[in-house]
Structure formats: C-alpha cells, structure tokens
Amino acid sequence: LIAGNYDEAKLLLEPSQPVDIADAIGSLPLILQALAFRLLKKNEAIEVYEYLDPVVQQTLLERLRSGEVLEIVEKMSPDDRVQLFDELPAKVVRKFLSALSPGERKVTAELLGYEPETAGRLMTTEFIDLKEMQTAAEALSLVRKRAPFTETIYSLYVTDKERHLTGILSLRDLVTADPSRPIGDVMTRDVVNISTNTNQEEVARAIQRYDFLALPVVDKEKRLVGIVTVDDLIDVIEQEATRDIYAAGAVQPGDEDDYFQSSLFTIARRRILWLLILVLANGLTTKVIAMNDQILKEIVLLAAFIPLLIGTGGNVGAQSSTVVIRGLSTQKLKSLGAIRAVVKEAITGALLGVFMMLVVFPFAWWQGEGPLIASAVGISLISITTLAATTGAILPLLFDKMKLDPALMSSPFITTVTDIAGVFIYLSTAKWLLNSSLT
Amino acid sequence: LIAGNYDEAKLLLEPSQPVDIADAIGSLPLILQALAFRLLKKNEAIEVYEYLDPVVQQTLLERLRSGEVLEIVEKMSPDDRVQLFDELPAKVVRKFLSALSPGERKVTAELLGYEPETAGRLMTTEFIDLKEMQTAAEALSLVRKRAPFTETIYSLYVTDKERHLTGILSLRDLVTADPSRPIGDVMTRDVVNISTNTNQEEVARAIQRYDFLALPVVDKEKRLVGIVTVDDLIDVIEQEATRDIYAAGAVQPGDEDDYFQSSLFTIARRRILWLLILVLANGLTTKVIAMNDQILKEIVLLAAFIPLLIGTGGNVGAQSSTVVIRGLSTQKLKSLGAIRAVVKEAITGALLGVFMMLVVFPFAWWQGEGPLIASAVGISLISITTLAATTGAILPLLFDKMKLDPALMSSPFITTVTDIAGVFIYLSTAKWLLNSSLT
After folding, report:
1. pLDDT grade, residue B190 (50/70/90)?
2. Given CB atoms, is B103 within the 8 Å cutoff of chain A?
3. What is the pLDDT of residues A180-227, one digit of tens each?
4. What is the mean pLDDT of chain A?
5. Does the beta carbon of A28 lie under 8 angstroms from any beta carbon of chain B?
6. Which of A54, A227, A350, A395 has the greatest CB tally within 10 Å of its CB?
7. φ/ψ bin of A250: left (φ > 0), alpha (ψ from -120 to 50), beta (otherwise)
8. How many angstroms separate the CA atoms of B327 and B259, rounded?
C-alpha cells in the first residue's frame, strides 16, 4: 500500500469480512487510512465504516471529502449513525443532521431524543411490518422487496391501523406456511415487547431469556417504533460485564470501550474518587490503633499480625460480595432469597475461619512467642471472617433493596470496612485476654 | 392446580413463552411439577423441558413414566440433550443412550465424545446443507421441507461431495435471489469457520466479532459436522464473565450456574484454597513486621498507619489488575501493547500516590504527632502505589505470556503481594528516617 500498489491492496481486501477490513484499516498509519478506505466499493465502505473504531471513524470524517462523508452518514443504518453521533462534538452533529435527507434526519433526531443506554437508543427503525389480512405469499413478496433496506428479515411484525403491535412471526413461520393463508392465522399473538425507555441491561436479559433474534420496541402509546437485534445486545452484555468487573475492582465505570486509548489523567481521575473514599475510611483504622496504643506498647508483636488478620478478613469479604453481586446481576440469586443468602454466607465465613485457624494458630504461637497472641489471633480470626462474610453479603443486598447499584459495595469497599472492624476486634480481644491473664 | 382444576391451569399456561412456563413449573412444589408438565402439549413439552433448570429436569426424569421420558429425550435437539446428559450420572446416560433411536444415539455419542467447553459440545448437528448446483427455488423448497427438524433455517451451508464446506448463504440471500439461479452464484465463498475443538470462549468471540447468527463447525478433515447458534453463545459469554468476576474475587471457578443451589461445604471448598494461599503469603507480612519490631518498640504509633498504607496499596493494585485482566479477556489491550500498558499503569500509580499524599500527609502529621511518621508515611505511600500499580499490571501480563490464566492474578492476590512489600518499604523508610534524624 505504501508503495502505491493500489490494485494489489484492493485484491487483498476483496474476500474479507467487513470487520476484518475495518481492523486492517484501523491498524494502518493515519495518513493511509483514508486512502485504503477509498479503495473499497461503495456498499462495502458503509458496512466497513460501521465496524471501525470510533477514533478511526472520526479521523476519516476529517480526511475524506465532505461529499464522500455525507454519503456514508446518509446510508448508515440509523442505530449505527446514532452511535457515531454520540461520539462527535455537538457542532459537527448539527452540521450532519441538517445535511441528511428529511426522512433520515427525522429518524436520527428521534433516536437521539431517547435517553442513552435505553432500548430507544439501541433500536433501529428499519424493520418489516405486515398486516393481518395479507396472505403468506403476499407477505413473502413484500419481505423480498424490503429486504435490502432492513436490518433483519427474520423477525417480522404485524400491526393494526394505529400501528399497534398485534403479533409477530418469523421468516421461518412465513416460509413454511401455506402461501394462501392470511398471516393473522400464522402469527404468534403472545408478544414479548419492550418500551423505548427500558434500560439496555434489561433488554439484554430479555433477549437472552427468550432466545429471540430481535425484540420489538413500543412507545408510550404502545405503537411499534423499532426493533433491537441480538447482535447489538451481545455488545451490551459484554459492556455490562466489564462494568461489573470494574466496579469489583473499585474502578469508576466510564466509557469502558475506549479505556486503552484514554489519557493518563482521565484514567487517574476515574480511580481517585474511590481511592480517596477508601483512604479516608482507612483513616479510621489508624484511629482505632492509635487509641489502643497502650496494649501495643506492652506487646509490640501484636502489631505483626494486624495485616494477616485484616487481609484474610478482606479476602473472605471479597469472596462473599463477589458471589452476591454477581448473583444479583445475573438474577440467579432470586431463587435462593436474600435472607437465606446472608445466612449461608455467614456460616460459610465461620467455617472458613475455623479451617484457617488450624494453620494460623500454630503459626501465631510460634511467631508470637506464646499462647496469648495465638489465642487473640485465633479468636479474632473466626470473628473477623464471620463478620466479613456477613457484611460482604448484606451490604450489596441492602444497596439493591435501596435501588442503588449493588456493585458499588465492591471488594475494596468491603475490605476497608472489614479492616476497621477487624483491628478493633483484634485489639479488644488481646486487651481482654491480657487483663484476664493478669488477674 | 392444587385444587385439581386442571383445565384452568392449562388455560393459564396456554399463551406463554416456553421459558416462562419452565420458570412457572420450576417454582411449583416438587410433587406438582410432573403433574403440571403433563398438562403441556407434546411439542410444547419438549421445548419447555429444554428450558427447565437441570435440577428440575432430573426430578422430572424420576417422576414421569419411562415412556414419556424417552419420548422427550428422543425429541430434544442434540445439543440440549448433550447438556442434559452432562448433568446426569453415567449409569442413567448409558440407559438413555441405548434406548434412543439409532440415528439420535449416534449423534449424541459423537457430541459427547468432544471435550467439554469446545465448539463440538456446543454445536447442533441439525443444520441445512445445500449443493452448489441447486437453484434458489429448489433450495427454498428444501429449506421448507427441513425447517421443522433444524435449529435454524437462517444460516444455510453449501457442501461438496466430500461434505467439505464450500460456501454459506443466509435465508435472506436465498429469498431475495433470482429463483432460477444456482446457489453457487449467490453464496459467499469467504467462510469463517471453527473447528470442533475450538474453545467456547473463542467461539463466542468470533460470533460477536462478525455479528453472525450461527457459525459452521468443521472436523479435522474440514468436513462440515455442525453449527453453533448465537443463542447458545450468549449463555457462554455470560458464563465466561461470571468466571472472570469470580476469579477477580478469588473464588475458584466451578459450576457457576448452580452456585445458589450448592451446599455449604461445596461453597467453602471452592474458596478455601485461595484463602490458604493468601494466608500463607500474609504470614510473610507478619515475619517482616516481627523482624522490624525494634523500630515499632521505639515508635508504637508507626503501627497505626500500617493498615492504611497496605490497604491503599492493595486498592491501587486491584484497580490496575482489574483493568489489565479485563483488557486481556476482551482482547482490547492488544491495541495498546503490553509494555506500554505497564508503563501507563506505573505512571498512573505514581500520580494517584501523589494525589493521595495531599490528604494523607497532614492527617499523618496530626495523628502521628510530628514530621517523622508523616514523612515515613508520605514517602512510602508514593512508593507503594507505584509498585502496586506496576505489579498489578505486570503479573497478569506475565501469566498471559506464560499461557496461564491471567485472571489468577486477581485483586486479592495482588493485594497480598502489595501487603508484604508495603510493610517492608514503610518500616525500612521509618528506620532510615529515624537513623538520619538521630545522627
């Protein structure tokens, strides 16, 4: 390509999948991206463009002639266009909107009007709607005619005069039906639909639950306005998983997609808030120890076990909160119920504490030079693990009940809460043991 | 239903989606499940059965008459049948296998022969294969005929005499094609295929990348043996995300699906291994502190800042490892490269350390009664956060390079590593500061 061997490059791009071509273009140096893109055939170019990285999409917008750009933007499918506009500065979007053909402009403005991360934003308005009276043969010829302009022809929708959804049928139903029968007889009247303001996570869960290829979206007046297809939702499922994983690591969710392209300060900004909250909470641990410095002065070696105890407590708490948060997010916890989940985790925590004491107690006896420290470590170990597991289970459930995101009660947060309580339990136990052994 | 009002119950189940019926049956008391299930129509019963929870499936197997059971198992689609057999004891599976019709038996035994979590296990053998010579009209009538017996009719496959895959076409291509043209002219020859032993995670990634509804699976001789459909892969994507999230919380991955049904000991067993490894590692922290007890004896208040320092280090390390592990798992880190990722994380760690010092230093001055502890805390805070971020990035990348699962380098592990190093850095700094201030 650098050598200007266009024909060869063209051949190279020929037999590939659009997404592979998009990747290849994205990996080229900036100045060659526009060149390579121009080599594509018109139809292919639009498909490839939809698969390009947002950053590359924007570079191309700047480097292609405005006529070329307008043609691409005009021909993109409405949902992909809205996704692109989301990334562009408002000024550029306004320019594009006014240059679009009236029909496309109206659709795009409408989609942009819905809240981000709702079904309204994800959906495409390019679907096939049929009427109950049409025969299967008529419907099939209509599908043939409209196939080039719609996102999917496999899910077909039947509406009445007021555009209310009355039934769905699949292309499979249509193809296998008696050609002369009206589709009203073939369609399924029991329709699962979602509303334009349904959250994308819920949409993903519905499509996953019913194994559908697409879901119809209706507006407030129950009129069919668009469909959401399974390929868009796979990305949503991955994005939501990333969000949960980030939350579990106390990384503030942002635009997860472009993390590996964002600047150092953006990255730091997304992490500092949680760190500051946690560092302030950890200040309490410092206070608790400072208030108990009398006992530490008497037995300095007690300090040596603080990291082990609070570390273990933190790990047990992290395990519990991980399992509970994931269970809430996949809705699998429902079958067990909140109270039984907490009880189960509490007992698990106690069990784990007992197991670990078998290792830790002898170690503490040896390293702590005697039974006093070993007993303090052992007793507090079991209390801390039980408490940590309980807290790790309760806090996310409580947040969920309060309609807050349970993922905020992430492992680092649970760890910090456990730290404070753990140090307090440990030092109090040691003080109590010391006093009883003296009297 | 309890009152024996069967007709009403039947009506109630009538208009629902199979998955909803499956849920309703699953929530019934054990003795009623079989009763409710018998009320379903034959065809519906099989579909509903495929959606039932594995536990309920097994209960039904025991409670229905063996004739009924055999009919269901015979009519299930091969991939769902294999999934059921995976859960059953080997003895029961052998009994079922021998009772299946020869054709179904052969297919099922074949699928069971592939490794778990590979494309071979996920795929169904019920697909439509066409020949290049057939006209679009011929092909369409073939599709019509075979529609009731295949999982999808939207992805069609073209094979030669040796059953080698030569092309694919979608039902959309077929429906819109000129009826008299041979499908060899319409099909796409550039086929993305996977092999029977491809890991399910890779299969999911491929289907997500290309936005396909199904992927063809070929054997070692490149013959088409099955297809994997998108609905099976959505479950895989969720399962893999759960696995990553569990790993991030140091919960050993097991059968994630049935967690909320497993016993306390199973749960504890899945967590104890990691906890024991971590507790042993934390023993090193104890050793480090015990070896430095001289300085703690002199300044007991130093101990009060240990949890804060190692806690913060752990949190920063957890953030870095979370982002890097997720980046490896979604393959988005590729665009940045390993070395640049580590450098980026190291600088971020240092930045975060400086930010936090602005809060922690004054606090340590006040609580630690003077500049000595404050300086020790401040200096080690920056060193610890930098080290933690670097370790959090390097260890998962190293594991990935060594072909081990990077998710094993989870937050709790990074936290523990940081604990040991953090205590050492802190106490050494304090010792050095004390010595310099004395001389």
Report:
1. confident
2. no
3. 999 988 888 888 889 998 998 889 888 888 888 899 999 988 899 999
4. 83
5. no
6. A227
7. left
8. 26
Highest-scoring range by mean pLDDT, B5-9, B106-110, B379-383: B379-383
Residues of B in contact with A321 (CB under 8 A): 249
Question: If you average pLDDT over residues B66-86, what whole number do you get?
Answer: 82
Residue A384 CA to residue A392 CA, distance in Å, equals: 12
3-state SS class at B5: coil
pLDDT digits (tens, 9 = 90+) for A248-269: 777 766 654 556 667 777 778 8
Under 8 Å between Cβ of A157 and A224: yes
Q: Which SS3 state, helix, strand or coil, does residue B269 take?
A: helix
Helix B90-99 / helix B102-112 crossing angle, nearest 10 deg: 150
Q: Which of A209, A231, A348 sits opposite B264 (nearest CB)?
A: A348
Phi first, then psi, for residue B214 (nearest 5°) are -160, 155
Question: Given an 8 Å threshold on Cβ–Cβ distance, is A300 in contact with B293?
Answer: yes
Nearest-angstrom CA–CA distance, B28 and B45? 16
Q: Are A193 and A218 in contact (CB under 8 A)?
A: yes
From chain A, the residues in CB contact with B261 under 8 A are 335-336
Interface of A with B in 107-126 (CB under 8 A): none
What is the residue whose two structure tokens read 């043939």?
A: A144
**Selected residues 40-69 of chain B with any CB under 8 Å from a CB in chain A:** none
Confidence of residue B259 (pLDDT cuts 50, 70, 90): low
Chain B residue with CA closest to A244: the answer is B245
**B278 shares contact with chain A (CB less than 8 Å):** yes
Q: Which domains does chain B have, with CATH numbers?
A: 6-113 (1.25.60.10), 129-238 (3.10.580.10), 256-438 (1.10.357.20)
Give the C-alpha distances (Å, rounded to integers) separating B68 from B23, B45, B72, B92, B273.
21, 10, 6, 16, 44
Q: Note whether A416 contacts B268, CB cutoff 8 Å.
A: no
From the list A261, A303, A352, which residue is nearest B303 (CB)? A303
Residues of chain A found within 8 Å of residue B192, distances taken between Cβ atoms: 17
Per DSSP, the residues of B95-119 read HHHHHS-HHHHHHHHHHHTSPTTBH
> Is residue B8 over pLDDT 60?
no
Tell me how far CA of residue A272 lies from CA of A269, A311, B343, in angstroms.
5, 22, 18
If contacts are CB pairs under 8 Å, which of residues 381-410 in chain A contact chain B?
Answer: none
Q: Determine whether the interchain pair B213/A211 forms a contact, defined as Cβ–Cβ distance below 8 Å.
A: no
Residue A135 has pLDDT above 90, yes or no: yes
Instruction: Say yes or no to pLDDT of B261 above 70.
Output: no
Quote the percentage of chain B above a pLDDT of 70. 93
What band does B385 get if pLDDT is binned at 50, 70 and 90?
Answer: very high
Which of 212-271 (A) contact B at CB < 8 A? 213, 230-231, 233-235, 237-238, 241-242, 244-246, 248-251, 257, 259-261, 264-265, 267-268, 271
Q: How confident is the model at residue B182 (pLDDT cuts 50, 70, 90)?
A: very high
